[in-house]
Specification:
Blueprint lengths: L3 H4 E4 L3 H10 L1 E6 L5 H12 L3 E9 L3 E4 L2 E4 L3 E8 L6 H4 L3
Antiparallel strand pairs: 1-2, 2-6, 3-6, 4-5
Length: 97
């Protein structure tokens, strides 16, 4: 198994993800591009000592960007939405809420 810190990169902190966290107990994370659901579940359970109910994963394509006549592309990345068991929360990602 991969190192849990290599699987989970960082949380996504947006208005939509904060509402999902507060109302439904779902945490949105950026994960390694080659990680699968089983690895994400194991990494979250090991790092934060919580019980994961389910994991949804999606690939996000990088946007094409231009600067004058030069064109580039941002990197593709993978996003995971992790739902925890009822009554549990990740204090490190709660951020004072």
């Amino acid at each position: 198994m991969k190192d849990p810190r290599a699987v989970i990169r960082h949380p996504i902190v947006t208005e939509k993800s904060l509402m999902a966290r507060d109302e439904k107990g779902r945490y949105v994370l950026v994960v390694a591009i080659d990680a699968n659901k089983h690895q994400v579940r194991a990494a979250v359970e090991e790092l934060f000592h919580v019980h994961v109910k389910d994991v949804n994963i999606m690939r996000v394509k990088g946007k094409r960007k231009r600067l004058g006549r030069f064109e580039g592309k941002r990197s593709d990345w993978k996003k995971a939405v992790v739902r925890l068991a009822k009554g549990e929360r990740i204090e490190e990602l709660a951020g004072g809420a």
